[in-house]
Amino acid sequence: MTLSLKEALVKALLGKGLLTEARLKEALKIQEQKGGDLKDILTGSGFVKREDLISVLSQHYSIPPINLARLKIEPDVLKLVPAKVAQHYRIIPVSKVETVLSVAVSDPLNIFALDHVAAMTGLKVLPVLAAEADIENAISEYYEDSSYEEIEKVISGLSSSDVSVSIVEESKQMFRDAEQLLQATENAPVVKLANQLLSNAVRMRSSDILIEPFEAQTRIRYRIDGLLKEVQVFPKALHEPVVSRFKIMSSLDISEQRLPQDGRFKIKVQGREVDFRISVLPSVLGEKVALRVLDKSIAQLDIAMLGFHDRAQKDLKEAVGKPHGMILICGPTGSGKTTTLYALLKLIESPEDNIITVEDPIEYQMEGLNQVSARPELGLTFASALRSILRQDPDIIMIGEIRDYETADISVKAALTGHLLLTTLHTTTATGALVRLINIGIEPFLISSSVILTAAQRLVRKICPDCKAPYQLDEELKARLGIKDKGKVTLYRGNGCHSCMNTGYRGRIALIETLIVTPAIRQLIDEKAQEYKIREQARKEGMVGLREDGLEKAKKGVITLEEVLRVTVGEQDIETRVSGG
Q1: How far apart are CA 433 and CA 453, in angstroms?
Q2: Rounded to the nearest 5 degrees, what angle is found at the Cα of 497, between the Cα atoms of 492 and 500?
Q3: Predicted pLDDT at 520
Q4: Res. 318: pLDDT tops 90
Q5: What is the mean pLDDT of residues 350-377?
Q6: Is the pLDDT of residue 183 over 80?
């Protein structure tokens, strides 16, 4: 008598010592109370490792295992099995060699699914084993949110008579009539294309969408983990309807194509609300659009979740707990400075405090904060807004950025008169922020009296966990980097897989260095000491530099050495002077 999958699985796991009788009873009790698949309960409760489960099933049924995360499935193979069939049976085709189709399954005994696929395709079906969660992720990746299929369908729909009004004129003469343009943007295919571009960007964890016009076509690029990736090209004739669709969503003027426009809108994507900020810029070939994706569900607004090392977390929490003074977060554009400020505000926000922010523009709308958007074109600059804020009885103030002497001067005075002020500055190091304030024109004694902490940070790409592989660090490079670990040093890099789009990276984490303004640092500021002197003192007091933080994360297998060197190359000269090299 053939054993059921459940019986065969339990027998094999018990026989190999991968599962105890006690844990089996506990899992069966959970299944009885809550229902569900025993395989999912065993892996979800941590009773059995997922890879052990696949290995046991593979050996028992003599079916080869496969890691779907490391595999790229070709569109021609996917077309052999419709999405409805894949979703119904929880299977996915992975490859086709002549008359043999390999299909990933999580249940080796699901012969009905294999027979159905064989009859439908006329091919010999070879099952390969994968975890059910991996199959579901692959189905979602390749079928449900497939940018390739969905956008191609939409574009083919756009070339039909439904939107003939949108493609009858040459590119430079298109849609000069506002009514025609409005009519084109309301066509269902245009709406679908715009929505698909937004949903794909959210699914791919993109931070920005660029819509760029060229002579004969429009290019779509997403910024993923800090790097731009071309994802789609469509006919130039569709450019203006799509751009105008985004303008309508942002309540912008669709007839104005000569001046820049900015706006924002909010839509529901994949069951959650996502904010988008839009900037429209006229160019010779048409309007270029930049959309910033502000997805609060993936934005880490918790200081403990940003990846900061223990010393930095301690310094930041102590500084933000003080009743007054200035906290400066530094770094280049796109280094996560504003996210760190929001995380700090979220840490201290309470009904007892009056918190006011001035931002240009507002990145995230947060409850409990009074947020003001700077409008320089109307005269509402950071400096003028800050003057007004000081008459609003604030306890804590956040200024988006110090850009000039006037803003810096008012900020320092606000910090000296009993307010806690948080802001950002474009410098590369924590010590450089102090020197920059002096260069702006602020008196050293005001800086040493008001600033309580400066920090510099960078965002680096994390290694993809699905294709991470170890390697040994070369001894010569180890010596050059000043790594003093005895013996061999193991580092990691990603080989590339479909889950990271073959980049080897997925997600980002922050590197940070923090500098507490101690009495010794104050004295150096008052003396207008050079930056390397201030840094030398800070290192004596325990400051962890950006490169040092990066190397520690690299040794832990979180990031690559290449990423550390890429973002800290500018600090090498300063560190050399500090070490006396």
Answers
A1: 10
A2: 85
A3: 94
A4: yes
A5: 83
A6: no
* 317 pLDDT tier (thresholds 50, 70, 90): very high
Q: What is the pLDDT of residue 454?
A: 95
Count of C-beta atoms within a 10 Å radius of residue 307: 23
| C-alpha dihedral (444, 399, 429, 503), degrees to nearest 10 | -170
Beta bridge mates, 505: 463
pLDDT-derived band at 581, boundaries 50, 70, 90? very low
DSSP-assigned states of every residue in 204-236: TTEEEEEEEE-SSEEEEEEEETTEEEEEEEEEG
Three-state secondary structure call for residue 338:
helix
Pairwise CA distance, residues 557 & 123, whole Å = 43
Give the rounded distance of the alpha carbon of 149 from its chain centre.
Answer: 24
Residue owning tokens 């008169």: 417
The confidence score (pLDDT) of residue 119 equals 87
Lowest mean pLDDT among 74-83, 317-326, 329-338, 481-490: 481-490
Which amino acid makes up residue 133?
A: A
3-class SS at 454?
strand
Give me the mean pLDDT over the 417-426 stretch.
Answer: 92
The angle subtended at Cα 579 by Cα 578 and Cα 581, nearest 5°, is 110
Buried b (16+ CB within 10 A) or exposed e, 5-32: beebbbebbeeeebbeeebbeebeebbe
**How far is CA 572 from each of CA 462, 542, 543, rounded to the nearest angstrom?**
22, 18, 16
Two tokens at 303? 């200081």
Full-model pTM: 0.67
Query: Encoding tokens for residue 25?
Result: 């009873």
- Collapsed DSSP state (helix, strand, coil) of residue 352: coil
Contacts of 315 (CB under 8 A, 6+ apart): 453, 455, 514, 516
The pair phi, psi for residue 529, each rounded to 5°, is -65, 155
